[in-house]
Amino acid sequence: MPHYLTVKQMAVKNPAFTESSLRYHIFNEHKNGINKAICRIGKKILINEELFFEWLEDQNRRSS
Question: Where are the domains of the chain?
Fold first, then answer.
């Protein structure tokens, strides 16, 4: 079962990512592909932690 976190919870659990940086990536989700790791319920945004880190690794591979 996926583990979902709010933006704030994600930033607290993973201090390498600030709320601002996460929100920046979410705002640009259709350009950077992070939308696969995001679930929206009304105005609430939840991040699938496992898919987020898969996306992060993919970004790292693309920049190399």
Answer: 4-63
Quote the CA–CA distance of 1 and 21 in Å, as a whole number.
Answer: 26
Among 16, 32, 18, CA closest to 7: 18
Burial of 30 (0-12, 13-18, 19+ CB in 10 A): exposed
What is the rounded average pLDDT for all residues in the chain? 95
Predicted TM-score (pTM) of the model is 0.89
Nearest partner of 24 among 4, 45, 53, 3, judged by Cα: 45
Tokens 């659990």, located at residue: 13
